[in-house]
Amino acid sequence: MVAVGELLREDPGSATMPAVAERAGLSLATAYRYFPTLDELHRKFMLSVIDELYESTKGLKSNGMALFNDTMAQWLKVVAEYGPAMVLVRSREGFLTRLQAGEPHARALERVWAPPVRQLLDEAGVDPDQLPYALSLFNALFNSREIMDFRAVASMPDEQLVQRCSRLYWSALQGLRSTED
After folding, report:
1. Could you tell me if 107 and 135 are in contact, meaning their C-beta atoms sit under 8 angstroms apart?
2. Which of 52, 66, 77, 170 is 20 to 30 A off residue 178, Cα-Cα?
3. CB 21 within 8 A of CB 35
4. 67-79, pLDDT tens digit by residue?
5. Long-range Cβ contacts of 150-158 (<8 Å, 24+ apart)
6. Are the CB atoms for 169 and 141 separated by under 8 Å?
């Protein structure tokens, strides 16, 4: 995974199976034994990145919007480091379908984002049953491709980007309120 990460950070387009095998000091046959396709290798790498994010956020002591902001700050760091590699992993299914099916990447993102999002739903008076939709909304707004785009176009410091994303997400969550509210 280290070899994959290095290649994907340096030049995602050059991260072929032969290049990964060479960087890892493996024969090409051995590399293919572990990862039959380059897509599978990318997916395994992406899962390791999300796991790294989880490890950096699981001990956060803040609550509510502060927890969301702290988690978002960590997300921005991860995207800054791995973003070009992260955008290589795509799926034909939407986030909700993947989450419901138990797809590993969607579940890993749920593990990271459910605690702060659940707290925001509570603060906003939104039914906790809306969590899957709130997570899907988060994914649509702030996946790695969108964060990279924000950075490229807005060119604002991370602290300001965290605040902008948090306000935007808070506003979007209001749309998940029951129509009876």
Report:
1. no
2. 66
3. no
4. 999 999 999 999 9
5. 151/80, 158/73, 158/76, 158/77
6. yes
Whether residue 50 contacts residue 105, with contact meaning beta carbons closer than 8 Å, is answered with yes
User: Are the C-beta atoms of 36 and 98 separated by less than 8 Å?
Assistant: no
Residue recorded with tokens 């809306």: 130
The total of other beta-carbon atoms located within 10 Å of residue 36's CB is 11
Distance CA 123, CA 157 (A): 27
Helix (H) or strand (E) holding 77: helix 64-86
Q: What is the DSSP letter of 13?
A: G
Whole-angstrom Cα distance, residue 54 to residue 70? Answer: 12
User: Which residues, including other chains, have CB under 8 Å from residue 150's CB and lie 6 or more apart?
Assistant: 161, 164, 165
Distance CA 51, CA 42 (A): 14
pTM of the predicted protein model: 0.86
Q: How far apart are CA 146 and CA 143, in angstroms?
A: 5
DSSP category for residue 181: -
Residue 29 carries which DSSP code? H
Tokens for 38, please give them: 């380059």
Domains of the chain, by residue range, sit at 62-176
